[in-house]
């Protein structure tokens, strides 16, 4: 016999244990990817996070609830004073035996007696060891005593970085699409050039280009994010890795602080403030278009925690950053925007970049930025940057074991001017594989001539094991097992949408089916969202843009382009993030030393104190 114990609802972001248990049940003997696929099928493609997102210890504005009521108990989120634990006697327990339990954390024992088949629930104090003792009596047999020590380790994990870190492309509650069309103007040709794409479900305003409406009215029907200003999502690899630690290790609790933000670079986002992506749905109508620097937010949280608990440390930082420092979204725009008018407009507004621009930034700016980032992070992790797990990017444009995607309009025909140019695509793919990813690895690990003052202390823990898996799952990957809607309605020839300006107002899809049948969270061969996915799942009208690029009319041509790409085109899907989390989890466990903890159990017979009653 031995005493078994585990922390209940140990992913502390979740207010309700049922949400945690759903993940525990789906994780049994499965990878994070297999668990995600199982949950996707259970939710019929609507996604497991769609209701959980309203039951968290961090609200939709990004504020930590203090206190946070978790399973009817008020807790301090960043500095818990105790943890809920379930204790059981397991092994060869005699049938009908009685268990006299005692729990002592140094302030005198708490005693209770139960049938040995009953689990015992209690709260144990943070930072203190509780000795659990049980005396097992069964009929005339001698009483046996079993003892163990309970001490919960609360692991503080922060998530930092850009849109790959935040989970862009995967709204916690995806947009509900209408089967009817919504008009966008086109830059092409005459002032009268227009086209229709699916509208938002519930939107009752003007759908024709001649019927303007307010952005506030339209945004009332937007997708829901765990954090709208940063497009932060529970599907992100950072949330999934932190959650997986809690699922796998029963003697810890995980306090997770997500700070990653779409659009972040090292200078604008991590070390300085940045523009918000979208406003949270609120009644006030006030929109703060700026987001505080992530490192400053983390420093503030850690300082406040240490005031209450001087020994509180930041145990792990999950980090992905660098793509925006080399204008990656500009490279994507350069690949997919085909028509001369749009290309000229984009170039003028600085939304487009060439491989030469990126190469220049990679050589000149990124190494210096990394030096600054290291200096800022070092004091937060006790001077040891191995506690920063840097998760690298995957090449988004590969399929069939690493063959570059061919390009074309397939997956990008949500906008008439989009067409992934094969030559530009091949050039970007080669740049990512042969220059960008190797240079990032060098910067994170203090190799390839990276500027590191003390390579031993400055070296981050580096993760890139997921890159090989993505070589089969880029944006152009297809399979006969893809969702039926995708196979019927997203045409491989890039002609998915009805070009007839009259009939497309009521039926924008050429396949004749309703866009509302699309499901963002079903297993697919592609783990990278294409522009069609981005529009169908998130349809983002980015409100944090500079005033000059902020159109007043919701039918404006600019919105047509932005809504197609700003919801996560060329970003990993929930499956892609789960695969990234599978790669990050062993590294995180190793940094935390979680696989090296032996259990503490003693057992023995008690001398018979009283003769048992004869049966």
TrEMBL record:
<dbReference type="GO" id="GO:0006629">
    <property type="term" value="P:lipid metabolic process"/>
</dbReference>
<dbReference type="InterPro" id="IPR037460">
    <property type="entry name" value="SEST-like"/>
</dbReference>
<dbReference type="InterPro" id="IPR036514">
    <property type="entry name" value="SGNH_hydro_sf"/>
</dbReference>
<dbReference type="GO" id="GO:0016788">
    <property type="term" value="F:hydrolase activity, acting on ester bonds"/>
</dbReference>
<protein>
    <recommendedName>
        <fullName>GDSL-like lipase/acylhydrolase family protein</fullName>
    </recommendedName>
</protein>
């Amino acid at each position: 016999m031995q005493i078994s114990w585990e922390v209940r609802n140990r992913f502390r972001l979740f207010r309700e244990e049922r949400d945690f248990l759903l993940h525990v049940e789906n994780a049994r003997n499965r990878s994070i990817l297999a668990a995600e696929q199982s949950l996707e099928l259970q939710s019929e493609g609507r996604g497991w996070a769609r209701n959980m997102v309203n039951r968290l210890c961090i609200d939709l504005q990004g504020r930590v609830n203090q206190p946070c009521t978790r399973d009817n108990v008020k807790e301090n989120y960043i500095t818990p004073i105790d943890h809920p634990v379930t204790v059981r006697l397991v092994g060869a327990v005699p049938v009908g035996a009685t268990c006299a339990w005692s729990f002592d954390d140094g302030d005198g024992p708490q005693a209770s007696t139960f049938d040995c088949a009953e689990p015992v629930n209690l709260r144990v104090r943070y930072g203190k060891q509780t000795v659990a003792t049980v005396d097992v009596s069964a009929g005339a047999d001698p009483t046996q005593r079993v003892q163990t020590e309970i001490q919960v380790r609360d692991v503080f994990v922060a998530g930092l970085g850009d849109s790959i870190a935040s989970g862009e492309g995967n709204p916690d509650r995806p947009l509900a699409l209408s089967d009817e069309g919504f008009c966008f103007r086109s830059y092409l040709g005459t002032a009268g050039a227009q086209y229709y794409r699916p509208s938002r479900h519930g939107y009752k305003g003007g759908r024709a280009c001649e019927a303007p409406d307010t952005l506030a009215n339209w945004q009332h029907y937007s997708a829901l994010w765990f954090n709208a200003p940063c497009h932060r999502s529970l599907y992100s690899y950072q949330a999934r890795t932190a959650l997986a630690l809690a699922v796998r290790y029963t003697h810890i609790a995980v306090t997770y602080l997500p700070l990653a933000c779409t659009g972040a670079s090292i200078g604008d986002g991590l070390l300085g403030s940045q523009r918000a992506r979208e406003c949270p749905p609120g009644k006030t109508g006030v929109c703060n278009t700026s987001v505080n620097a992530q490192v400053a937010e983390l420093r503030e949280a850690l300082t406040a925690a240490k005031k209450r608990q001087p020994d509180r440390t930041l145990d792990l930082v999950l980090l992905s950053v660098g793509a925006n420092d080399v204008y990656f979204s500009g490279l994507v725009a350069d690949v997919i925007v085909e028509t001369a008018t749009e290309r000229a407009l984009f170039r003028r507004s600085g939304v487009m970049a060439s491989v030469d621009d990126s190469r220049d930034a990679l050589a000149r700016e990124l190494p210096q930025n990394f030096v600054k980032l290291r200096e800022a992070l070092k004091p937060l992790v006790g001077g040891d940057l191995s506690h920063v797990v840097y998760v690298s990017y995957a090449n988004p444009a590969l399929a069939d074991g690493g063959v570059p995607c061919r390009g074309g309009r397939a997956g990008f025909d949500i906008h008439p001017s989009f067409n992934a140019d094969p030559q530009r695509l091949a050039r970007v793919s080669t740049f990512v594989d042969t220059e960008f990813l190797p240079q990032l690895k060098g910067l994170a690990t203090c190799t390839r001539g990276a500027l590191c003052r003390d390579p031993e202390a400055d070296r981050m823990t580096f993760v890139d094991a997921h890159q090989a898996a993505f070589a089969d799952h880029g944006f152009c990957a297809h399979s006969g097992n893809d969702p039926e809607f995708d196979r019927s309605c997203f045409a491989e020839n890039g002609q998915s949408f009805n070009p007839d300006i009259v009939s497309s107002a009521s039926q924008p899809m050429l396949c004749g089916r309703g866009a509302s049948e699309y499901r963002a969270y079903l297993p697919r061969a592609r783990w990278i969202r294409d522009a069609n996915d981005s529009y169908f799942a998130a349809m983002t009208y980015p409100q944090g843009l500079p005033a000059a690029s902020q159109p007043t009319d919701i039918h404006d041509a600019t919105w047509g382009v932005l809504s197609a790409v700003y919801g996560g085109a060329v970003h990993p899907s929930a499956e892609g993030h789960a695969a990234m989390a599978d790669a990050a989890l062993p590294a995180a466990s190793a940094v935390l030393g979680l696989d090296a903890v032996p259990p503490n159990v003693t057992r023995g017979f008690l001398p018979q104190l009283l003769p048992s009653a004869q049966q």
